Each structure stands twice: as structure tokens, then as C-alpha cells.
Amino acid sequence: MKNFTSVYDIDNLQEIIAKALKIKENPLENPTKGKGKTIGLVFLNSSLRTRLSSQIAAQNLGLNVLTLNAAQEAWNLEFADGTVMNSDTVEHIKDAIEVLNQYCDIIAVRCFAGMKNKADDVNESILSQFLKHAKVPVISLESATRHPLQSLADCITITENWTENRKPKVVLTWAPHIKPIAQAVGNSFTEWMQQMDVDFVIANPEGYDLDKNFTKDTKVIHNQDEALKDADFVYVKNWSSFEDYTAMPKVDENWMLSNEKLELTNNGKVMHCLPVRRNLELSDEVVDGENSIIYQQAKNRIFSAQAVFSEILDEINSKD
Amino acid sequence: MKNFTSVYDIDNLQEIIAKALKIKENPLENPTKGKGKTIGLVFLNSSLRTRLSSQIAAQNLGLNVLTLNAAQEAWNLEFADGTVMNSDTVEHIKDAIEVLNQYCDIIAVRCFAGMKNKADDVNESILSQFLKHAKVPVISLESATRHPLQSLADCITITENWTENRKPKVVLTWAPHIKPIAQAVGNSFTEWMQQMDVDFVIANPEGYDLDKNFTKDTKVIHNQDEALKDADFVYVKNWSSFEDYTAMPKVDENWMLSNEKLELTNNGKVMHCLPVRRNLELSDEVVDGENSIIYQQAKNRIFSAQAVFSEILDEINSKD
Amino acid sequence: MKNFTSVYDIDNLQEIIAKALKIKENPLENPTKGKGKTIGLVFLNSSLRTRLSSQIAAQNLGLNVLTLNAAQEAWNLEFADGTVMNSDTVEHIKDAIEVLNQYCDIIAVRCFAGMKNKADDVNESILSQFLKHAKVPVISLESATRHPLQSLADCITITENWTENRKPKVVLTWAPHIKPIAQAVGNSFTEWMQQMDVDFVIANPEGYDLDKNFTKDTKVIHNQDEALKDADFVYVKNWSSFEDYTAMPKVDENWMLSNEKLELTNNGKVMHCLPVRRNLELSDEVVDGENSIIYQQAKNRIFSAQAVFSEILDEINSKD
């Protein structure tokens, strides 16, 4: 694995899930694999789970960890190429990356969608700079359009929770929010589910269809109740309009997942990537209920990260 | 020791002081006690001594340390139960704690009094959430009403500085400030002194009496000069009114501790938890004077923390 | 080496450069030299390279690292002596340093020029407090008037890039900026070049002469083209007026280093300490061009720091 920014960087999804589950059994089985190597965790945005789980995963492998809260600790970054830097940006992202090349064996970066300019976000204006200028492996800690370490943790969690001898039905359902939220988690979960042996459908209101480049042939249903029917797993997540970018078209029905809605499912397990807006996206009773596997997902972020770091280290070590 | 949030979590105060002093002689005597374990240091408020001493103590024991500046690095937290999260809070404290449960073997948290609502502070609205939802031991790095690691360091410091064969007289004296400050340090020092073999009195102006639930039978004197007479230790600290919560009733006398005031004491040692407002709470000459043991207190924060972490680890390791 | 705040703390410049180059060959050759010792990295200002390279250097030597972003994580600091602290500063720098004395074996601090009061900056109002109150070695991570770890990295980089059997010509040239910038890098580079076996000249517009206490007998030329002629190394850096402190007198000529200007040199290598304002200080084509050794300089920050930390540790260990 050269970089890790989407499911398409994975050779064999079942193998990496199995690897992560083995790591979960004994997280310290390779405590020196990363010895003498440094991972730089660069945060251009807020982070709790990603920040902590990445640090734990790196420590479990013996990697040195450098954490950089770019905006608060370093300099205001310029992202546009060729610009005359005579305004309030102090350092070009290109130079910051070239310096990280000198200091790190792996660069991991969190860079949310800017939600200002659709083309910038669709084209991953920030992550693409890392991929262009990094001379070491790049790992996405969530980018404008994807959140792959979350999605791998989601696949691990579904695998752990499915023992029946048939394909589970997995529903990704939109939920309400008060602010325009990026499509990254929805897009990414969709791509990973397309590679899993599951029946996958997406439920969202009219006007909220995800980018066709991610949904492809996945069935999109505009009626939540219909979609939830017989679901074995329900993944809840808000996103704003992709077509009318960042808009929040009015939704008349109540899309918040409640216990009542959950009764439509096949005793479905409830998933969310967190942070969750309680009683807006999900009711308290669902988050705290027996069907919630939300915190298990959070825990699996460690093993998702550790499996990926481990594969990247294998690649690096094979060249040493 | 299951949790550590007040003196009442200590079985035997003299024993833990002795343990801390032994650690001070050789801080690295148990460098692998915390191996493979992780402590999460969660800061909801500013911190210098607590931040650094906790990290050193944890490193001395071989613990992995995760530091989270919650407000700046993660998400704006919601503390109210049952609320519809349709405003500016992004993650419920309950969910953050449940995630920390997945990532940490010990959770340590700093959560000051909000100084907005008396009942919230008295009831420890934030720390109580940690105690309710944490599935791992919780350590207070200062909460709304107490600062127990500071108080233990204070007990260690008094013990180190007392060799006479009689009880020392210890005075906690209020000092001026320009802003309403929480009672946590005053409350906490009071509780710990009540368990120490000392003569303890509190001096504060009228209107500034601490919560009776902390002072109990401790003598409270409203005349500073009278209280300071023959004091062996003088602990200086500001707090705002508890009764008229956060008010700062006018004080006519000058309560700043000066060398002149210090002459009333029995060559009393001067203590302060820091940060100190020089020439407002204490004069420069006192902070920098021969009687000041303020920096020794700061140093003992390491051994206070290390003794507590060590006891918590003993409990965890006994269950492994 | 007791402290490290300028070239004058170095006994033998050639020796420490040689030492750093040896470290570069094998950064992990002394992985336990700092064992059981703690370095506190105190940032009063932003930092990317200094922050990361110092952490790497410390880790390579087995030092424990405590990083403190003073303003964001701790308290608003007071720097004036004798002041009544009844305003918005919460902790005196003197007390913060005394506490760091208790916690650290080495204190490293970044404290930029305030650019408000010339005398404060010239007298190093902040660094001088560290040198006065610290009881452990102090390392400057850039102060009001100098950036010595950068300058040492610059000397290492020049040494690596010079194989001819004659003195190289090194030019420090001023470059345009939009804000008043401190003279620290310019001063510091000047002082170190004066100790190197090079022909050194400074080029800057009229009104931008550096402090004579730093330039001494170094030739200062007000015509960039003339200065660049036959240069083997061109160090580009902006600074504001020292004489009319923080002023930015109008400059009619274009001082931005472009490929056209570079043709005046002897195929000169281009240096900059970063962050760089692209197309303002240097053109994109120069930063990204073949003559740029800017990222090599950034890499050498690790070995500059590691050589200095190593010497300081030798001194500490010799006293243990």
C-alpha cells in the first residue's frame, strides 16, 4: 500500500479486515515494527477519535508520533498555486509538505471540505497537494470527499456483528442537521459497502442525493421507512446537498432515527461515526439503546488505523 | 483506589504521602508499571503545572499519554442531558466519555467551575458526568469544587517542611483578586488539612466564607492578623463569595500577604498553588522570599500525581 | 555548553558542524543519551520546523519531551518586573520559569520580538528572563534578535554544499514583505557567517541596515545586483527597519529574488529559513528550482538541534 486515501488503495478488503481483527486481539504484537520511524499527524481540522486512535495505533507499533495542529501551532497556509503571497497566508502548503517530507516517514492529514467552492472540494484541493508533493506515504485522516479510516472501522464493526449465513442488509440513512455538513462520511461508507458482501441501500430526502461518482449503481431511496425495512445495520449520517452544493433543501418528514423507526428494521444495529447531534440526528434512546454499536465503531478506529499503518510500514520496511 | 477526585478516595493519607516522598527519591523506580496502558489527559481548561506534572508522572511509570485540549482540538461539548442538540454544541460529553472509555485505561480531566450557575458547580455538573459514564478510573485534575492532586502535593510539602515535635499551625488565608475565582483550591485544601495532624484555621473577609460542606468544624476567622499569629504555614489563595455566588463583596482591609504581615507568624512558610497574581495576592518580596515554599509545592505536583497514578495502576493491574 | 542562545555559546564552530553531519549519518547512534531527562519546549509563538525538528532531535536522544503552547494551553503571561498584576496577565514569566526549573532538565523557548518597543526587543526582554531565572540550561528556539538553531543548520547546509578549494561568497539579501518582520534571522545568520570561512556580504535597501552590533565590519551593499555578482550562496530574508524600528521605508527597486537575478550569481545556491512568501520574497521558479537548497536547510534543523541537545546533555551528564 503506497498511500491510503480510499478503498481503492486496498488490495484485498477481507484480508485487511481480518488483519485488523487479529490486531484487536493483541494490539501490542508488533511493538517495534515502526521503530525509528516517524508519523506526522497533521490536523487542519478538529479531531477527537481520529486524533486519539491514530496516536494509539502508532504507539502500538512503536512509531514516533509528531502531532501538528496546523492552524493554531504553525502558520496560516496558502493553498493556491502561483499566487503572490501578499495577503494573510504565511506559508504555502507545498512548502509545508516538502518540510514534512524531510521529517516524517509517513504523513497523515485531516483536511475537511471547505464547503465554499464545489470544484475545490470535489477535486480534493488540499489532499491532492499532499499526494502531489509528498515523497513519503500519505494517509487520509478524512478529506473533502472521503473518510477511509472511518469506513474501514465500519467494515470491521459490521464483520464483528454479523454471524448469519446470508448477506446483511445495510442502510445508510440521512439524518437532520442544522448546518451544511460535508458528504465525506456518506461517500466513503458507500464506496466501502460496494466492496463488501452486503445488500446496501441509501436513504435520503429528495435533493440530498450523493455524488453519482460515489453512489454509482447503489440504490437510492427517498423514503426512509421503506429503506429501513428489514435492515440489519442502519448507518445514520447527515450531509448537505451535493447538487446544489452546501444547500439544505427543506425536508417535511422527520428523518431523525428513533426507536419507533428502528422497529421497522430487522432488530438492526445502529451505527454513527460520531460526533452525533443527539435528538437531532438520533434520539437519545437509540444512541444509548441496546442496538447501538456506535462506541464499538469508535474503538475499532484504533485497529483500522493500526492495520493501515502496519501495511504502510511493511511497504517502507521492504525498501529499507 | 477506584477514582481520585477528593481526599475521601484515599484510604490512608499518611501512607500515600510517604509513598510520594519515596517516589521523589527515585522517580524512575517503577518505569514499566504502566506499560501498555494509556492515560488520557483531558483539558477543558488552561493548565501549566497540572499538564506538565501529569505528563512527567505518567512517563515515569511508563504510561502512554494522550493529551486532549478539548475545546481547541476536538469539538464544542454539550453537557445537558436530554437536550436537542440543534445549537452550537457538536458532541455530547457523554459520547466523548464513552469514546475515551474505548481508548484509555485511565481518564484524567480538568473541568473548572463554570461560575455561571451555583447548583451546576456545587453538583459538579461536568465531573459527575465523567464519574457516571466512565468505565475506567477517573482522576480529577481540578474540578468545580476541588483540586485534589494540588492538595496532596500541599500535604507532601507541609510534611517535608515540618520536623518539630508538635502540630504545626496552618492558616489558609484569602487574598485579593480582580476577578471572581472558584473556591476549588480553598475547599480542597480545607478538606485535606482536616485529615492532617495540624491546627488548621481559615482566614477570610466577611462575605467570603467557604461552603459549610467543606469547612465543617474548621475555625473561620474574619481578621487576617489574628489568624496569622504564630502560623507555621500560610497558604494564600483568592476565592469569590460562595453564599452570593461569584460576587466580590468590598473588602476594606488590605489582605495581600506582605513581609510585614508575615512577621505576625512563627517564621511561617508561605504556600500558593500558582499561578499567582504578584503584588495583588502576595507581594514580590514574599513570593521571592526565604519563607516561600511555592516552587517546592509545584515540584511536588509530580510526586502527588505519580503516587495516585501508581495506586490506580495497582488496582487495574490486580484485575488484569 | 551551558546555554545555547547565540554563536558565542559555541566553543568550536567547525567541530559542532562536523558533529551534526555525523549525527545526520546515523541519527539514532545515541538513543539513550537523554534517558530519564526531560526537555521542555515552550512556544510563545508559532512554529512548524522548530517544533517538529526539536521533537525529533530530542526523541533521537531518548529525551522526554514536554511541549507547551504557552498562550493557548497555559496562562497569559506577565513579563514586567514589579508590576501589580491587576489586569489581564495571570502568571508572571518568572514563576513559570521557576516551575519549569522543577520539571525540566533543559528549557527551550521560542520568544519572538514583540515589535512594539525597540529597547524591549534589543534587550531580549523575554529570553533574558529565562536566562536570569532558569536553573537548567536554556536553548533559544528563536528570540527577539537571534535564531541560532536556524543559523547552525545554515552553516551545516553551506558546509555540505561546498567542495571547492576556495572561500565561497555568501550573500544575505533582503527581500520584500508586506508586514514588519523581525531582524532575528538576518542578525543571527550574519553572526554565524562572521565565524565561518566565507566571504560574506549583506545586501539591503537604504533604511534597512541591520543593527551595527550584529553587522560589525561586515560589508553592507545597498545595490542587490552588485551584491549578487559571483555569489555562491544567496540567503534571502525580509526584515523591517532597525533604525526607524518596525518601519518599512519605500523601496523602489524590485528586490524579489528571481531566476533573472540568480543569473548574476556563480550558479548560486538559494537559501531561506521558511516560511517563505512565494512570489513576494522569492519567485516560485527559484523556490522550486534546481539551485534551491531550502528544504535541505529544513532537514538540517534536526541535526542542528540534535548536536546542540547532545552537547548540553554531555554537560549535564558530566555533573550527575
UniProtKB/TrEMBL annotation, chains A, B, C:
Pathway: Amino-acid biosynthesis; L-arginine biosynthesis
Binding-site residues, carbamoyl phosphate: 47-50, 75, 110, 147-150, 273-274, 301
Keywords assigned by UniProt, alphabetized: Amino-acid biosynthesis, Arginine biosynthesis, Transferase
Listed EC numbers: 2.1.3.11
Pfam families noted in UniProt: OTCace, OTCace_N
GO molecular function: amino acid binding; ornithine carbamoyltransferase activity
Domain Aspartate/ornithine carbamoyltransferase carbamoyl-P binding: 3-160
All copies of domain Aspartate/ornithine carbamoyltransferase Asp/Orn-binding, residue ranges: 185-310
Subunit structure and binding partners: Homotrimer.
HAMAP family for this protein: SOTCase
The protein's name in its UniProt record: N-succinylornithine carbamoyltransferase
Chain's gene name: argF'
